[in-house]
Amino acid sequence: SPARHVSSDPISDMKISPSKSLSPSPPIEDEDDGLSKHRRVLFTVGKVSIKIKHCILRKDPTYNGYGLVLRYQNGLHLIDQVEDDSPAYIAGLREDDIILYADKKNVQQLTHDDVKILIRKLSIKNMDIDLILM
């Protein structure tokens, strides 16, 4: 079946198609961590909401690097550490976020080295890094 197109934002453009038993939700407005502009509920199962967020990681000429450390654990690409006030922190990345997409590529089947290489290549080209995280 075709993917449901809920809105024109990049999250919807990822062609994620929830089954009929799952219902998409609007942006979360009651979060008090300052990240509600990044976070959306992908679907809800019972009382559990699966939340994803869309972050754009941009280089800052006054900052060396992005201020994040990645790790691979249990088959997942995770954000291990985020430095306060770094480009990663400002973009909305937080420790233990799971990377689902980087540069519109599903990273779940990539090796951890391939994910790091992808991010490094975009960094070298001074390109924004488009991330979908959970």
From TrEMBL:
Transmembrane regions listed in the UniProt entry:
none
Concerning InterPro entries, the annotation shows: PDZ (IPR001478), PDZ_sf (IPR036034)
Domain (PDZ): give its ranges. 54-121
Q: Which Pfam families match?
A: PDZ
Return the SMART domains for the record: PDZ (SM00228)
- Looking at the record, which segments are called Disordered? 1-34
The name on file for this protein is PDZ domain-containing protein
